[in-house]
Please model this.
Amino acid sequence: MESKEFKILFGKIATDNGYCSAFGAWYKFEDEATVIIKLQKSNYGNYFQLLMKFYYSNVFNHSINKMDKELVNHSVSHLTFSEPKDMRDTFDLDVEISSQQRKANLTELFNIHLNVILEKAKTKNGALEMNEREEVYILPGVKNEIINSLHNTGDSYNDI
Model:
């Protein structure tokens, strides 16, 4: 499968899962977070890396009201996920996988991984709970800003 073909396939599955397309990535606006999914092509091989980035509203005094190219291409986010290790062959275009199997794998990726992560991490409290359960690691400075933003909006977070 060619890179262009893979990106089109991935994009179709992303939009089927409610993501909008902009600037070579896919995004969703949730109540407390903006979620961006981006495919990053490797310079070292014929494969992609998946980046799922979360930006939370009112963290570091930022609110995102519209998608822009700078945000899509920014390398830092409040929370970032990559593809699961058991799915890496799906993103390696040199691995012999039929188009139908690659499509099935990507559909499974959304159904079993990305949609589950989105559901858990789309709120600040959800992200903090994932951090407490060691499902993710949130940098201490980002964690403090998330907690402060909750306090500033009248919400609270209680450590698990």
Q: What stands out?
A: The mean pLDDT is 90.
